[in-house]
Amino acid sequence: MYTIYVGDKPIILTSEIQKETDFKSFLLKSVNIGKVIKTLNNTDLKAVHLIHENKDKLLKKFLKLLPNVVAGGGKVYNAKNEILFIYRNDKWDLPKGKAERKETIEETAIREVEEETGVEGLKITKPLPTTYHIFKRNGKHKIKVTYWFEMKTDFEGDLSPQENEGITKVEWLNGKSSQKALKNSYANIRLLV
């Protein structure tokens, strides 16, 4: 089973048919993804289930429905065990960005965290779950596939938000502050923190 977010509402890819309650089900092979996005955005439905009999092909078939944007990002801890957050578009988020040619996804994640926050000395400690969300750019919907990594750093320098990317704040947040920030964040980020 996979979850792809449209805003904070999930599209759930599944091979199981369930009785519809506060969600609607469609067959993945014949679905009109534009209609699904519109339905989620304009109704009080809680979710959409896209069903395919072969659970091993769910994600592969779904990713063919829209252009994909591959990104890498980090959940970064400092020596005080605080998590690095950015503030962009009036929401708290974790630093991430688009992969460039000829770089590994790990290199992308480290580069993007450095660029968006000014934090250096990053070391990847382990991979985290990959997230999926649908966004609209220049009138077209796309699927962002973000590969996340847990990172550590001993960096104690100044944080510098990448303003040309719309980032207005960068902060280290402790456990309590992180939980508060997640109330004004994205569903994908709540899965990671």
Automatic annotation (TrEMBL):
Residues 67-193 form the Nudix hydrolase domain. Gene3D superfamilies: Nucleoside Triphosphate Pyrophosphohydrolase (3.90.79.10). It comes from the Bacteria. Keywords: Hydrolase. InterPro entries: Nudix_hydrolase, NUDIX_hydrolase-like_dom_sf, NUDIX_hydrolase_CS, NUDIX_hydrolase_dom. GO terms for molecular function: hydrolase activity. It holds the Pfam family NUDIX. Belongs to the Nudix hydrolase family. This is ADP-ribose pyrophosphatase YjhB (NUDIX family).
